[in-house]
Amino acid sequence: MESIGAANIGTHYDERSPIADELRDGQVHMWYWYDEQDEATLTEAVRRITRKVTDTLGLRSGERLLDAGCGPGETGVFLARRYGARVTGITLSAYEIERANERAASNGMEELARFQYGDYMELPFPDGSFDAVLALESLQNAPDPVRVFAEFFRVLRPGGRIAFSDFSLESSAEPKRLATFMSALKLPRLPTLREWLEYAGDAGFEVEEYTQCGPRVFGRRSKYVKAAMSRRQELLAKFGEEALGEFASRHLGFFAPRRDQVGYVIVAARKPRG
Ligand SMILES: C[S@@+](CC[C@H](N)C(=O)[O-])C[C@H]1O[C@@H](n2cnc3c(N)ncnc32)[C@H](O)[C@@H]1O
User: Fold this and answer.
1) Average of per-residue pLDDT values in the chain
2) Is 0.85 surpassed by the pTM of this model?
3) Which of 46, 91, 103 for mutating ligand 1's site (highest number of atoms within 8 Å of CB)?
């Protein structure tokens, strides 16, 4: 697979995030529905993932959180508001930085939640400068996960926590379908749950919790389509036919794998106290 540079990833999210932001209320990530009859709205289904992943961090007021791959900021603003955490969000997307800082200001959270350009492959922060690190569906684009986990380990204080969530490989039976998916989402690799745990463990983290809830996430794609289609006219009026068409065409690759081929993992781990 070709290497995907930071500028390329930044452009990918500059193009993708505005409509995703609108559709999922600032959370550019997956959803969680219990079953096909679950009546939760898309916003609520997406918030469930935000809460499920960030709950594992056990944040306390005043703690310093790095939101690595922060998207358009709703997650970071939520964590500042709910826990009083001091959030530093980084992303490669200029659109996301502007939108996230706007969102922090309009929620009166600009003192607690700040967003800036940053590459998690080379973090511009001193050793031990955070109590917690969050990577909510951002590691999927990492050119070198070993390096990123080493960076997270470095910037955390001893005893600091990390939480991440992402896609996992559950069955490689139909490689063409997977290749289409990975190319559409710009994924250099699709690790298994075991590989995700190894990345964290090999960097020195002690894994404390993990789950694979793909059937309620990737497996509920049809509910996402239904929810998105119900807002089609509204999105059309705001973004226009061409932008919406491009956004939809990117989803073709997303839908390529069988439902049982792609999982969703949530992992919480700690840097040893020493
Ligand atoms: C799928 S979005 C998730 C956004 C956000 N965590 C959320 O859940 O709403 C992936 C995010 O990872 C960021 N990202 C990807 N590669 C990155 C890198 N090398 N350094 C920093 N951020 C990165 C993208 O810019 C984007 O904000």
Assistant:
1) 93
2) yes
3) 91
